[in-house]
Write a sequence for this structure.
């Protein structure tokens, strides 16, 4: 019987950089990014980082709290 090989995982090995262009269709009538659109992009980036970390498909089960402190303006 062989022992499983334990390999340490570091956050830097699972980090993901994602860039999205905010277009007029992503904003409300005040030209601010829609909160739901930002949450969607965050969910995708988090799923990619989680998948890299555990080498498996990951899904978001729950979000406890999310606060938007400043608007993201369309320039």
């Amino acid at each position: 019987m062989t022992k499983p090989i334990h390999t340490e995982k570091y956050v830097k090995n699972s980090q993901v950089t994602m860039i999205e262009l905010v277009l007029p269709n992503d904003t409300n009538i005040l030209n601010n990014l829609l909160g739901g659109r930002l949450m969607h992009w965050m969910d995708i980036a988090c799923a990619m980082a989680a998948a890299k970390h555990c080498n498996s498909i990951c899904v978001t089960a729950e979000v406890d709290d999310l606060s938007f402190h400043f608007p993201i303006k369309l320039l």
About this structure: The helical segments are 11-14, 35-54. The mean pLDDT is 91. The CA atoms of residues 47 and 59 lie 6 Å apart.
